[in-house]
Specification:
Elements (H helix, E strand, L loop, with lengths): L14 H14 L2 E5 L6 H14 L4 E6 L6 H14 L5 E3 L3 H4 L1 H5 L5 H11 L4 H4 L14 H10 L4 H9 L4 E5 L1 H4 L3 H5 L7 E5 L5 H8 L2 E4 H11 L5 H22 L5 E3 L2 H8 L3 H20 L7 H14 L6 E8 L2 E8 L2 H5 L8 E6 L5 H7 L5 E5 L9 E6 L11 H16 L5 E5 L2 H18 L3 E3 L6 H16 L5 E5 L17 E5 L8 H14 L1 H21 L10 E6 L6 H4 L4 H6 E4 L4 H6 L6
Parallel strand pairs: 1-10, 1-11, 2-4, 2-5, 3-4, 5-10, 12-17, 12-18, 13-15, 13-16, 14-15, 16-17
Antiparallel strand pairs: 6-9, 7-8, 8-9
């Protein structure tokens, strides 16, 4: 098998068959979906399967990841292959202008829109852009974006446009989803033709929501206030009229906000604009004045930001989206403000034409199953799927489902909170290493946290808490400190949500995390948003399947992601408490990882300690 020439390690269980499965897909021109747990080695396996067509056939590989921070991983693996196999394949991890613009950093511009405006309006006079040229020596080995950035910085070149020069020669390119599923794709396609490329989508279960977020937008009443303030810098009768209409718009939106029933509600953008007497031409003027503000800010050395520009674009997009099935207009309260959102639910419709642009697509994730549900929700038709059995050792795993626990219902009663805390205490008393308590939502976390903090204090455990809306820097510090505690033997507790940043993507090898307690099932709260989502999917796939795709499958993917933080290798042990009796229901159980299915036992809360301590993995 030619692909094995490019595999840099000793083959582990199931890796050969996955390579053969991918090769079959390439031969038969059938897209490939692979469900395999984190730690299986998906990245080197897929690279090894595709590199023969790159080296010998002139194809290219575009590797799409969820965020820019994850782009380095495929290139790090490519570096390993190139070094070990003594071959020459150039590749790079690609980042956008926000991360690669030296001028933006000097001006302290950090948002994507601001950097884009800066580059568009200042490019001709930018000293870094004028200095860009291809450096052939850079093509000798794969490069991380940080290596390109540092070289460009040292030579006074624009890192972004040096990256674009190198892109022409790259056989492997790693980048974020946005370049595949949004209009940004043309920037890559002209240099790395999609038709000649294999597309690999990592953590592909996120596509359903990534497509929605790219095509959605929101404003607040604060956006309108800031827009009125910006108009004060212009003097004309036309501007005076516009200011009056924006003041009327603010009043209409405040009235709409006060009518919100429940957590969220719908609004009619056409009615809002008509009530404010604002027409399409005037919305275009808002965009034009916003663009003038961008130019003025750049001349003053300021970051180009304009609420006028955003406000005009938002309402124009809303009018264009009227009566389109799958687009909703939501209003809700957030941090004391009224928010108005254009919400696009049309993942399959938006994505279905993307896949045919490539030679072949490979979708992989540790939570891709059920593969049929995944394929339908992203508009994929021509595919073959493979579920790789977990490498977890069942003798090192305990999975318990306490029969008295459930978060079902609108609120968590005090009696149930106390029962959960009793179960969590018994669980933590059995853990001599790091453990995590993942709650189904922030609302449930609020109910549990006071009692959990008290338990941790009495057990002498430090507790690290994920907070809603916390910054990336705060999250990284919490994650680093929690991991360090585990490594030095100070067993700590992480309290987070299954919908937050720690339940997916974070790695906790060995003692960094050996136990997880799931507080409830992370079903979406039944709000207007949830009802609209289920209704839309029911129209597409039928009532039963629609609810399953929109409501059930996403919840158990979140739960599976949280459980998957523990098992990273065959030697890892894991103690899991699935804290809701519904986890053992056969209609849900098959959606969980296979090692959970194989080891699950139903117990009484009072028996948790005894069951853990009598297991072969307890030490």
């Amino acid at each position: 098998m030619v692909a094995l020439r490019y595999f840099p390690y000793s083959l582990r269980e199931h890796q050969r068959e996955v390579i053969e499965f991918i090769e079959k897909g390439v031969r038969e021109k059938v897209n490939v979906c692979i469900h395999a747990a984190t730690g299986f080695g998906k990245t080197p396996v897929i690279l090894a399967a595709l590199l023969p067509y790159v080296v010998g056939g002139g194809r290219r590989i575009i590797w799409a990841v969820r965020t820019g921070n994850e782009t380095d991983r495929p290139i790090e693996e490519l570096k390993e292959i190139v070094e070990r196999k003594k071959i020459r394949v150039f590749g790079l991890s690609f980042r956008g202008k926000r991360d690669m613009c030296l001028l933006a950093r000097e001006l302290k511009i950090q948002d994507y829109t601001g950097v884009s405006v800066l580059c568009r309006k200042k490019r001709k006079e930018c000293p870094y852009y004028q200095n860009v040229y291809l450096v052939n020596s850079l093509l000798k080995q794969p490069l991380l974006f940080s290596e390109i950035y540092e070289f460009a910085k040292e030579t006074d070149m624009c890192p972004y446009f040096l990256q674009m020069e190198l892109l022409r020669y790259a056989k492997v390119v790693s980048l974020s989803y946005n370049y595949i599923i949004s209009d940004l794709g043309w920037t890559i396609n002209r240099l790395v033709p999609f038709r000649n490329s294999f597309l690999v989508v990592d953590e592909a279960h996120n596509l359903q929501y990534a497509a929605s977020s790219i095509n959605s937008d929101r404003i607040t009443i604060g956006s309108v206030k800031r827009a009125i303030g910006e108009l004060n810098s212009f003097k004309s009768e036309k501007v005076t009229i516009l200011k009056g209409k924006l003041k009327d718009l603010m009043k209409v939106l405040e009235s709409e906000g006060r009518k919100i029933s429940g957590e969220d509600d719908v609004f009619d953008p056409k009615m809002v604009l008509e009530s404010s007497d604002i027409d399409v031409k005037e919305l275009g003027l808002l965009v034009r004045y916003g663009s003038l503000i961008h130019s003025r800010q750049l001349k003053e050395g300021k970051a180009p930001r304009s609420s006028l520009f955003h406000l005009g674009r938002f309402w124009l997009a809303a009018l264009e989206s009227l009566n389109i099935d799958g687009i909703a207009f939501l209003k809700f309260r957030e941090n004391g403000n009224f928010v108005f959102e254009i919400w696009d639910m049309r993942a399959a419709e938006l994505l279905k034409d993307k896949w045919n642009r490539f030679r072949l697509c490979i979708f992989c994730s540790g939570t891709l199953k059920p593969i049929k549900a995944f394929s339908e929700t992203i508009g994929l038709t021509n595919y073959d799927g493979k579920i790789v059995p977990s490498f977890a050792d069942p003798s090192k795993i305990v999975t318990l489902v306490p029969e008295e626990l459930t978060t079902r219902g609108e609120e968590l009663e005090k009696e149930m909170v106390d029962k959960y805390l009793e179960a969590i205490k018994l669980f933590l008393e059995c853990m001599n290493s790091n453990a995590a308590v993942f709650c189904a939502s922030y609302r449930i976390q609020e109910d549990i946290l006071p009692g959990l903090s008290d338990i941790c204090r009495k057990l002498g455990r430090e507790i690290f808490v994920e907070k809603q809306g916390m910054s990336g820097d705060e999250a990284r510090k919490i994650l680093d400190d929690f991991k360090i505690a585990g490594k030095i033997g100070n067993a700590a507790v992480l309290c987070a949500t299954m919908t937050g940043r720690f339940a997916e993507g974070a790695d906790f090898p060995g003692k960094e995390l050996e136990g997880v307690f799931l507080v409830g099932i992370p079903f979406d709260r039944v709000t207007m948003r949830t009802k609209l989502y289920i209704d839309y999917y029911s129209k597409l796939y039928g009532e039963e399947k629609g609810r399953y795709y929109a409501y059930v499958v996403p919840a158990f993917r979140r739960a599976s992601q949280a459980l998957g933080r523990v098992i990273r290798s065959k030697s890892d042990r894991g103690i899991f408490i699935c804290g809701d009796k519904r986890y053992s229901d056969p209609k849900y159980l098959h959606l969980l990882p296979d090692y959970i299915q194989k080891t699950m036992i139903k117990v009484k809360v009072a028996d948790i300690r005894k069951k853990i301590q009598s297991s072969s993995c307890y030490c």
